[in-house]
Amino acid sequence: MLVGNAIVRRKTREINVGNLKIGGSNPIRVQSMTTPKTENVDAVVKQVDDLVAAGCEIVRITVNKQPAADALKDILPRVSIPVVADIHFDYQMAMEALKHPIACVRINPGNIGPEWKFLEVVKKARDEGKAIRIGVNAGSLEKPLLKKYGHPTPEALVESALAAIALAEKENFFDFKVSIKSSDVLQNYRAYALLSAQTEAPLHLGVTEAGTKHYGAVKSAVGIGSLLMAGIGDTIRVSLSTDPVEEVKTGIYILKSIGLKNDAPEIISCPSCGRADINVYALAEEVERRALGLKKNIKIAVMGCVVNGPGESMEADIGIAGGKGEGLVYKKGKPIKKVPEAEMLDFLMAEIERM
Question: pLDDT class for 306, splitting at 50, 70, 90?
Answer without folding.
Answer: confident
